[in-house]
Queue: 2 jobs
Job 1
Amino acid sequence: MTLSREKFLQLIDEFEKKEKLWNSTHEFYYNKLKTNDAWIVIKWKMEMSH
């Protein structure tokens, strides 16, 4: 799968909004259910922006 520049920037933006995915001091960083939910939201937002 190849991302366009716009989609790539959107992915980075959405990832940055989900601190629990990248901040190891976040209370939910090690919670697999919470991080999985965050990825699902990102996936949904990426698909909705077609």
Note: The helical segments are 5-17, 19-22, 32-48.
Job 2
Amino acid sequence: MVLCRAAIEEFITANKVVAFIKGTKQFPQCGFSNTVVQILNTMGVPYVTVNVLEDDLLRSGMKEFSQWPTFPQVYVAGEFVGGADILIQSYTSGELSEMLEAALNS
């Protein structure tokens, strides 16, 4: 893998909620990324975004790291949660709220 796996793990672990998206949280550049940003904003939790459009190596490296072929990719407490569809499901079921609460209170 081109990117250092340890550096990715360290970044994901250092930040409780991370969304690798197309664009930024201020200007998501695809509908799926916008959906993730809107859900996280609605939840009112602190989170960081990483714009995968800025770096081809990052984009391909994250696909390999997560074994997930598309973006966005959301991590909570160092664990891969999934993309927009999974986030919508877990938000609707209340599971995301529980996951975020546990992560932010740990």
Note: The beta strands are 17-21, 48-51, 73-76, 79-82.
